[in-house]
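pasting for ref
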Amino acid sequence: MISRPIYELNNSENSKQFHATMKKSIIILIIAFINISSGFAQDWQTDFSKAKELATKEKKPIILVFQGSDWCAPCIKLSREIWTTETFIAYAKDNYIMFQADFPRKKKNALPEKQATANAKLAEKYDKEGVFPLVVVLDNKGTLLGETGYKKITPKAYIQELNSFVK
């Protein structure tokens, strides 16, 4: 007795059905991946005037993060252990305007000149010592409320520290 394969792909009707099912499965997986990854993404601002406008409109403090995303080990740890966690993202979404001033060193990660210049101006004002990472808490006018850096603490404890600067 000769056994037949489950799908006879030589049969054009089975082939069409198989391909249609595979297309649907792939589309569903892509949509699920996009929804999951966007649900856990931090909403980083990169235009400081827009960040201040949002902070005023939404009555939230600005969390300004100076980092070297592709070379600074504590910056990378801070990102992995705090900024990208579900706990922090969920809280930040409702309570902070997140602003990133990145200073990458690798050519492939280079910022557009306008962005690099804007970040340098912010550093002149808020990070004169060139500390990385430096996390600065500002009010909606850009007034310094407090600052911190990388600490090996939980996202919840980091949130408490950031909130201690907000009056």
